[in-house]
Amino acid sequence: MILLANPNANPVTTAAMCAIAAPWLADLQGWTAPTGPQVIVTPDQLDRAADGIAALHPPAECRGVIVAAFGDPGADRLAARLAVPVIGIGAAAARAAAQGGRAFAVATTTPALRDRIDALMRGQPGRYLGCHMTDSPDVMRDPDALDHALLDAVMRAAAAGAEAVIMGGGPLAQAAVRLAPLSPVPLIQPVPEAARAMARLLAR
């Protein structure tokens, strides 16, 4: 069993991410944070989510954990404690985006997390060009407005030289699927990239 751990307290998002990851990981089980915000949008929320993930005790049959929030909260601490692979969707997306030496950027909805996202992306290999944000996380309340705002952010990233753009957020997984055909450059979807990375690790 592979555990997809959603640090956001939103079981609907957990189910959506599991459905997106399922083609690569058939034995997937979702876990949703029991408390906290439905969408992590501030550094304090990210820090509290990290504490929750770091304290996770997966079932004995667990063969790997995907931390399914873009800031990868608590992933390093959990990996240091467990004997199974732990993959954060942010780091997995960055590795995929940087393949072939591509310059890459992030498009997302959380301006308050810019510094945290920048730090995570700069800690990965590749040429990171920065974040392109929507004006506010509030746009997530309306799927049509969300798609419009995110596509604008993707276009700005491409115009700034990004050769691939990461859709930055676990709760944005469905928007990433919808927008991929419209992007002028490869749109990197963090949940599938983490699922592929986990499948490769477990196949060794």
UniProtKB/TrEMBL annotation:
- A Pfam family (short name) is Asp_Glu_race
Molecular function terms from GO: amino-acid racemase activity
Q: Which family does it belong to?
A: Belongs to the HyuE racemase family.
Q: Any idea what this protein is called?
A: Asp/Glu racemase
